[in-house]
Amino acid sequence: MKLDLVEVQKLEGHSARVWNVAWNPAAAGVLASCSADKTVRIWEQSSLSRSWSCKAVLEGTHTRTVKSCAWSPSGKLLATASFDGKTCVWENFATDSECVSVLQVHESEVKSVSWNASGSLLATCGRDKSVSIWEIQPEDECYCVAMLLGHSEDVKMVQWHPTMDLLFSCSYDNTIIKVWWCEDEYGDYDCVQTLSESNNGHSSTVWVISFNAAGDRMVTCSDDRTVKIWGTDIKRMQSGEGYVPWTHLCTLSGSHDRAIYSVHWSRDGIIASGAGDDTIQLFVDSDSDSVVEPAYKLLLKKEKAHTTDINSVQWAPDKESRLLASASDDQTVKIWKLVSEP
Amino acid sequence: MVSGLINENPIIYPKKERRLRTDSSNTDEFTPEPIDQLEIFDHIRDIKDPEHPNTLEDLRVVTEDSVEVDDDNSYVRVTFTPTMEHCSMATIIGLCVRVKLLRSLPARYKIDIRVAPGSHATEDAVNKQLNDKERVAAALENPNLVEMVDECLLPSAE
């Protein structure tokens, strides 16, 4: 059984490179894309024609590149992070998308924004080397509850764990991936682990962190052209045992020729990567008999997926559709479907 | 704030005579000529140094050999030599080279810029900044920086 990634549609409209795509976790077929053209576009799939069109353009609020966008778990809110230093929260997409909150704490470009699993917390990070955590109150009031300093360089991405309020951040600073956790009731977050080159970590900037559905595995990608898989015994942590460290499981190298800008782990276990070599690649657990060394293998390589760098890849949240969205320097977003060829 | 130039007395090399392109064997007007080392060098040789009224070629910051190109794979690497080991203009120079090439080469090209190994005190840090696409993009949204770069890229009235 041979698999292929088939291009379903190319979404055009942005007038500069597209940095990030995000599927709405609650509304099927809805995705957001954000760009150096300072706007965010919301795309929806028509129930009749099954094709996507641009339903809204969020503009006028960010004055510089919008680097990252993330939907709240309810799908009702969209957070956007910009080089202008602001993080905005938007709602009411059906009628007239409204920016309901502007979070301003970073001293320079904001690189990433992430919601925790319950939607009660928002994390942001930026070139000022800090990570901020915000509490979302009713009436969309947002309060900054923590500013985490620990990285020595530009923080590229923040990502909450899928089931626990563990925050992960990765950086320009040669490798460091930090794990932040608030163990007590006082709300103090501490850095409980740092994964650096000496822990089998990356040897250059780490761009993205993504978790598998169970939350016991994480995949990271880097400027060093490798993808790394990490694991932990999350059940022990979930049962209240205290922090259980993550360890390196596997490094995938040699298949990407340029910096890997994005990885995403699908609900059904397929890892997608997008890179500066214009390819999208898919990896899976190789089901090897070895219990000691978990191994992953390349499932498929899509050459020239875009005409230039791919900045972001994200699987649609449902398991059935097998749709993947990608965003590129070529100013387009593409929708792909993973199909089995007879 | 340091007053005066970083490098008060740069070495200015004698101007190399420009080679005329000889008629190539390719007479088919529809086949694009492969992009070669000289073509890329031609794009960057006249970039002005940020501090002096001289070009990068005059100061031997770039030479023809500092350009490595693989047109089949749409790849170019430029290795430049700052005039001084502690030159704080190194990132500006690197940025100017990158911007000029981004504006001059087809979109398919992958561009790497680096300082000549051993030529700069903070070589790794400079190289990292110059090749981080996100950092470069953010820098090019800074109007002061863009103005400086555009000044360096302006053709001189010769």
TrEMBL record, chain A:
SUPFAM superfamilies: WD40 repeat-like. WD repeats lie at residues 11-44, 59-91, 103-137, 148-176, 199-230, 303-342. Keywords: Repeat, WD repeat. The keyword Secreted does not apply. It holds the Pfam family WD40. Belongs to the WD repeat CIA1 family. Essential component of the cytosolic iron-sulfur (Fe/S) protein assembly machinery. Required for the maturation of extramitochondrial Fe/S proteins. HAMAP family: ciao1. This is Probable cytosolic iron-sulfur protein assembly protein CIAO1 homolog.
Automatic annotation (TrEMBL), chain B:
It comes from the Eukaryota. The keyword Lyase does not apply. The keyword Lipoprotein does not apply. Keywords: Chromosome partition. InterPro entries: FSCA_dom_sf, MIP18, MIP18-like. Residues 39-107 form the MIP18 family-like domain. Coiled coil: none annotated. Belongs to the MIP18 family. This is Protein AE7. It comes from Camelina sativa.
